[in-house]
Amino acid sequence: MEEKAGGCQCGRIRYSVRIEDHDAYLCHCRMCQRATGGVSIAFKSVAKAALTWQHEPDWYRSSLIARRPFCSACGTPLGFAFPDSDAMDLTVGSFDDPSAFRPVRHYATESMHEASIDTRTLPRIRSEENANVVQRWIDACGKPPD
């Protein structure tokens, strides 16, 4: 078992969770697309008993069968849960270091946007190469974010 931590963008909601592996999955269902504004969402399934919230997240009922934790201060989506299940999903992007997680399957492929799956041939631009955004950060706080 490995302990991982995460939370929302503003830092109000924090969690720690014990995980057994780094397996994740990509959900392409229309509800996740609408809930996140993305074409898919990367999730890590965890046991609810292995999860500790340092500050309880806000929850909303996203359908008749599920609810989702989020931060009402900054809007960060934090996961997905069936209320009657012993497991739930955390958004991979909400982990402090999401780099170890690897998707091992796609879910809800009927709503998959194929053009967004294989992007290896697209041009790549690093954040620090965007002078406009870098300058905005410098003007706001003296340096770009980490």
Automatic annotation (TrEMBL):
<protein>
    <recommendedName>
        <fullName>CENP-V/GFA domain-containing protein</fullName>
    </recommendedName>
</protein>
<dbReference type="Pfam" id="PF04828">
    <property type="entry name" value="GFA"/>
</dbReference>
<comment type="similarity">
    <text>Belongs to the Gfa family.</text>
</comment>
<dbReference type="InterPro" id="IPR011057">
    <property type="entry name" value="Mss4-like_sf"/>
</dbReference>
<dbReference type="InterPro" id="IPR006913">
    <property type="entry name" value="CENP-V/GFA"/>
</dbReference>
<keyword id="KW-0862">Zinc</keyword>
<keyword id="KW-0456">Lyase</keyword>
<keyword id="KW-0479">Metal-binding</keyword>
<feature type="domain" description="CENP-V/GFA">
    <location>
        <begin position="4"/>
        <end position="110"/>
    </location>
</feature>
